[in-house]
Amino acid sequence: MILIDLEKCYECGDCAVQCSYPLHHGKTSFITLIETAIRKITCRHCEDAPCVISCPTKALAKQDEGLTRAGMLCTSCKTCLIACPFGVNTLETVNFEKAPCDLCEGREITCVKTCSKKAITEGNFKEDAEKNIYKVADGIYAKAIHWKTQLGIKNGGGNKP
Fold it and tell me: Does pLDDT of 3 surpass 90?
């Protein structure tokens, strides 16, 4: 399992994280993980979802667990960046290429080793809203302040916390 500390990622500004998965070119897998974490934790999950409505290729979809992006449909036109009223979608996190992380199955976890800010750690993790740790995907967790916590909302709606 890995844990990504999004606050440390935001501080960095010049990501040097590498990935050893053959289908990932350079750091695209890690950028995709950050995008997924942001969509699950900091995205406001708007009822009318302007980013979804604005997408000309229907690459964004609103589902029960939040927004998802179909990488093969995304043309990187950036309309979702303009449409998001909260600035959740950013140029750095909307990447055309997309392939799932395999957690370096059978290989050394390269992203942990190559992150200069130590924003990625390996270990055993579980969701813990008090520690701002949320499950992003199987074996992948992110540490970030949930948008509802930022607004002082507790247990409102279907999203944690």
Answer: yes
Taking alpha carbons only, the member of 36, 63, 35 closest to residue 49 is 63
Long-range contacts of 129-132 (CB under 8 A, 24+ apart): 129/160, 129/161
Helix (H, G, I), strand (E, B), or coil: what is residue 158? coil
Residue 155 lies in a domain: no
DSSP characters for 21-78? -TTS-TTHHHHHHHHHHHHHHT----SS-HHHHH-TT--EEEETTEEEE-TTT-----
Assigned domain for 112 exists: yes
Q: What is the DSSP secondary structure assignment for residue 86, as one 8-state letter?
A: T
* 156 belongs to a structural domain: no
Count the domains in the chain. 1
Max avg pLDDT among 44-48, 97-101, 126-130: 126-130
Nearest 5°: the CA angle 42, 44, 47 is: 160
Residue 109, domain extent: 2-150
pLDDT at 141: 93
Residue 129 forms part of a structural domain? yes
Output the six-digit token pair for 10: 């935001």
